[in-house]
Amino acid sequence: MTVRAAVAGASGYAGGEVLRLLLGHPEVEIGALTGHSNAGQRLGALQPQLAPLADRVLQPTTTEALAGHDVVFLALPHGQSAAVAEELGPEVLVVDCGADFRLSDATDWEAFYGSAHAGTWPYGLPELPGGRAALQGTRRIAVPGCYPTAVSLALFPAYADRLAEPEAVIVAATGTSGAGKALKPHLLGSEVMGSMSPYGVGGGHRHTPEMIQNLSAVAGERVSVSFTPTLAPMSRGILATCSAKAKPGVDAAAVRAAYEKALADEPFLRLLPEGQWPSTAAVYGSNTAQIQVTLDAAAGRIIAISAVDNLTKGTAGGAVQSMNIALGLPEETGLPKVGVAP
Amino acid sequence: MTVRAAVAGASGYAGGEVLRLLLGHPEVEIGALTGHSNAGQRLGALQPQLAPLADRVLQPTTTEALAGHDVVFLALPHGQSAAVAEELGPEVLVVDCGADFRLSDATDWEAFYGSAHAGTWPYGLPELPGGRAALQGTRRIAVPGCYPTAVSLALFPAYADRLAEPEAVIVAATGTSGAGKALKPHLLGSEVMGSMSPYGVGGGHRHTPEMIQNLSAVAGERVSVSFTPTLAPMSRGILATCSAKAKPGVDAAAVRAAYEKALADEPFLRLLPEGQWPSTAAVYGSNTAQIQVTLDAAAGRIIAISAVDNLTKGTAGGAVQSMNIALGLPEETGLPKVGVAP
Amino acid sequence: MTVRAAVAGASGYAGGEVLRLLLGHPEVEIGALTGHSNAGQRLGALQPQLAPLADRVLQPTTTEALAGHDVVFLALPHGQSAAVAEELGPEVLVVDCGADFRLSDATDWEAFYGSAHAGTWPYGLPELPGGRAALQGTRRIAVPGCYPTAVSLALFPAYADRLAEPEAVIVAATGTSGAGKALKPHLLGSEVMGSMSPYGVGGGHRHTPEMIQNLSAVAGERVSVSFTPTLAPMSRGILATCSAKAKPGVDAAAVRAAYEKALADEPFLRLLPEGQWPSTAAVYGSNTAQIQVTLDAAAGRIIAISAVDNLTKGTAGGAVQSMNIALGLPEETGLPKVGVAP
Amino acid sequence: MTVRAAVAGASGYAGGEVLRLLLGHPEVEIGALTGHSNAGQRLGALQPQLAPLADRVLQPTTTEALAGHDVVFLALPHGQSAAVAEELGPEVLVVDCGADFRLSDATDWEAFYGSAHAGTWPYGLPELPGGRAALQGTRRIAVPGCYPTAVSLALFPAYADRLAEPEAVIVAATGTSGAGKALKPHLLGSEVMGSMSPYGVGGGHRHTPEMIQNLSAVAGERVSVSFTPTLAPMSRGILATCSAKAKPGVDAAAVRAAYEKALADEPFLRLLPEGQWPSTAAVYGSNTAQIQVTLDAAAGRIIAISAVDNLTKGTAGGAVQSMNIALGLPEETGLPKVGVAP
């Protein structure tokens, strides 16, 4: 099978990572590459790491440019995907790396994104219960947010086995690429190197309702989430430290058993041996999520920690993995499991 | 007044930072500098940033070398301070940057440090309730751990005003200097750059009982602490994200008022204007702690975040500040409030 | 003596560093702070490290705002200083951190800056031969560029003693703050972390003629300069690797002797012991320049390397040092010699 | 063809990178993994990024362990390869990532490495003139040093076309992984983050004679090299800034033409469009070398700059590329051309 794929938003970090992975995907042929303000430029000037595509020129993001592909990846600012997707036929697989179709609750959408709800597409996190079934054969995929990916993967085994109280406390550190290629002062190298800082504190981050949606579905009850994201001095990676009170009677063996059961057959989830903890370096550039869990008996809390590459498993890798499932390809096709370290 | 000060352990990060501050302290004259494996070496080869002391040679850490000083700073590995301190007369001010005399509970000490409890000295965190009174005129000071400094400063206003439930959840990121100049593989630059990773997860970090001790004293009830430290790709700085459920009826105004009241007159604590959050870069090399707090109404939690320089306010700055109080000097003498940024 | 100082361009990196130093200067009182697009904002939102000035509000950069000060520091984009300086009386000490008055050759200025030459002011690098005399009593100071500072300090002893051929080859690495707070994609943290890259290669960098001017004056003959600047993944610091062929008959002892003689009495220049090499970390936040030199006998070249903090000795520290000389204050007043490390 | 490969020294940075590449090589089956002090440990504890090999256990480096493989990669400390290689039959392809067999001049070897010369093997830099022919069918390969790779690739077109005078001046920045996983204080994260520093200045670096050997062979005359390596705050990457005086009459067009001709058909060398310069980020984790060149007319020098990943093209990628040639496999097999960026 050869799949012809277009990428809308090819000049950004998410689009660039989609292209890096597609260049290594044996069943994909890369078609149109589009951009907005960068249309007309050579890709080599914008994404110098993509050597084999250096001489490709970005087209404007139009229906014409995106026509004639089997798959279209949308790596656009929030709110722009719906209009583009509407113009693409129902037989085209549209993979939206943006937020537009992630939330099922229109009220949540409007409260956090401030615009009308565009709808809900099958959610591209195959590892969640029922996740693969929802993606098989679909022609529309909502790629999860990077933080919800890291957090949901860390906590779903605990909630699936009803081990944790429905109040999760999450502090996550992200590399700066999570904020995109936006020209904002606080994202300048001079500002971020040597510095840790929080943002979106107190419940305001847009990924919060997505985490609540995922964890509540797994838990079978509403899970509240206190989420504090922090910006770390690195380009890539998310380390999510997630905890919740253990339900009465839960012991360390039950926690370990739940994680071993949930993660045993997952090709991209790696439960580390006891005593070893995740690091973002170990998953750099890979589609692997490292996960570890323990029970803090004195504090009565389950502590689950995950490390993912925000651009790979957290965005483009999850997108390609979901595309593989939707198209009936082997799920692991074209996806690196090995990190680039040190 | 001219105070003659010696530093034992002058080749390490804590000792170097004590010396950096003492070089700018108008009332201090720097006397003996001692080391262990580095005795006999020029300080300039070990601490090249301390230009004015470059030609000083480290002596072995002996009673003779440390005799004849008004103040002796101990920047030694845990467990070595008691023996040295015993040899120094009661009229000498001994400032211990190690852990040996921080904990009042011998059982806690033995459980976390695995040796016999050496005793308890006045605790060098002046900003805690009663903190200054305990230090005035003392000749023995236990400098707090860097994490307990950051965490206690972030949370004491909430506990002092009985706003928070006694179960704190803390995730903190530290620069690598917090681990000292130890030659361990995971501290190599190749390993830490581009990586976030946790350690001591699940209640095992030695700073946990110190946090419990501080917060419980302020709260008037036992506070449990779930503490997860993480290693960040930066040399200095701690960002402590601390949260606890708000007690029933507590609203945002009460939280703000408690912090404004508690921090208003503190020379080194800076409650940021609402909406601005701390960053470790802003306090780099300074004795200032930036603090911010909010109430996450949806999750029902108070989120308090502090940023300190682990070597300055978190160690050497706190030590000098406490020394100033003990000696009756103005508390701010010789201590930078301005960070080196960007 | 109390000197009242204003800073025009207080929201940028140079202006912020001037303020950091002035806050520690015992003879200076900080007056007006001005900005352009940031006028009306609190300084605390723009320079959070300057805690004692957090509540000061930026005024627009006008003659009125800057009037009534003894010293005015200009930290403005190139080309804007002349107009502002003209409005300030000849009795006011104007310290220009920009490039406008550095070059004595109008042709060079026009070729490299593309505008009319504004003139030439006394040059603020006191360590060069005749440097201090030119600054005593002046009311106009052109602060050198950061690279020319590092390069001139590394090479002037070799040229002063006629040890080196007049063809210098220089490769320098700078921290990103050298590019200012400009919102350009290549300065984003995601781009610079983990990356080294050159720019302005082949003779085009604007600091090239300034280096030629300085070295030629010292050498007594025209010195050509091949200069390659590179951007390093750090916020601050310049490491300048400078070399030139040794003149016939020059040996290692002559080289060492020249540097020892030239640097012996300089308060801010530190010739390291043989075998120890500079690092930018060692001078972080300080006005010290570390310098080392050797003779590569096989290649026949003198290799001189300097490390400075581009914002301190390379800009604001050099500015304050020159101000001290101009005003008749002790040259070292208010200037840190100790770096913040690790 | 399935090639069975062993890696001696699998716990170090070079060995880990060889394994990362072999995991993606379609013709290789990974056999024995050996170590010295780490023998007996799980690879997952030492190289957590190599998820598919996590449960493999390191054997001691013995003849028995390495027997029965088609290819043996040696990633051992300098001086240890000869003894191991002797035990392996002449039919086994031995790829030495160490220095032992790189230099053809025994005097150079003894002067720079201080031990007896072990011999000279075919040199694994296929892009040099005659490079591929020397590797076809060989069963012994000396993998070049990382710096000589970067420098030789940057300068060989200029010397091949006799454009440059035989005196090269090179300043290169390397990521810390170039120093290996050695537990030395100056390689600690706290020391390297935020710092640039030189080492091996003045002709002493062991890679100097290797550069001279390569460039002299291309130039047809002895080329002297002034080489200054610097340590940069990043894990990976080399940026080599190389220059030499242009021979009389050489103009910019001739320089450009020489590089276009030399690099046109090279699969892993990428001459950038004029005006675009290399960055180490763009080649992170890839076997690509980015190269750019210009003529500084004022200084009369050719400036050639290359960026490589020191562990990939600079070590393990070059090793696998040379293995492919030796075994008659397509040269590009299993080697990434795309960098992981940002």
How many domain regions of chain A? 2
> Which strand order does the major sheet of chain A show?
8-9-7-10-13-12-11
CATH superfamily membership of the largest domain in chain A: Dihydrodipicolinate Reductase, domain 2
CATH topology value of the largest domain in chain A: Dihydrodipicolinate Reductase, domain 2
What letter string, H or E per element, gives the SSE order of chain A? EHEHEHEHEHHEHEHEHEEHEEEH
Q: In angstroms, what separates the terminal alpha carbons of chain A? A: 36 Å
Please tell me the overall pLDDT of chain A. 97
- Shape of chain A from CA axes? globular
Using the coordinates above, name the CATH class of the largest domain in chain A.
Alpha Beta
What does the oligomeric state look like here? homotetramer
- The fraction of residues in strands of chain A falls at 15-25%
Overall structural class of chain A, as computed from helix and strand content, comes to alpha/beta
CA radius of gyration of chain A? 19 Å
Number of strands of chain A: 13
Uncertain residue segments of chain A:
none
Structure description:
- Four copies of one chain form a homotetramer.
- The first copy, chain A, has 342 residues and is of the alpha/beta class.
- Chain A has two domains: 3-144 and 315-327, NAD(P)-binding Rossmann-like Domain (Rossmann fold, 3-Layer(aba) Sandwich); 147-308, Dihydrodipicolinate Reductase, domain 2 (2-Layer Sandwich), CATH 3.30.360.10.
- Chain A is 29% helix and 21% strand.
- Chain A is built from eleven helices and 13 strands.
- Chain A has helices at residues 13-23, 43-46, 63-66, 81-87, 106-113, 131-135, 146-160, 189-192, 208-219, 252-263, 312-327; strands at residues 3-8, 28-35, 59-60, 71-74, 93-96, 140-142, 167-174, 197-198, 224-231, 238-245, 269-271, 289-296, 301-308.
- In chain A, the strands form two sheets. A seven-stranded mixed beta sheet of chain A has the order 8-9-7-10-13-12-11.
- Chain A is globular and about 60 Å long.
- The model of chain A has no long low-confidence stretch (mean pLDDT 97).
- Chains C and D meet through strand 7, strand 8, strand 9, strand 10 and strand 12 of C and strand 7, strand 8, strand 9, strand 10 and strand 12 of D.
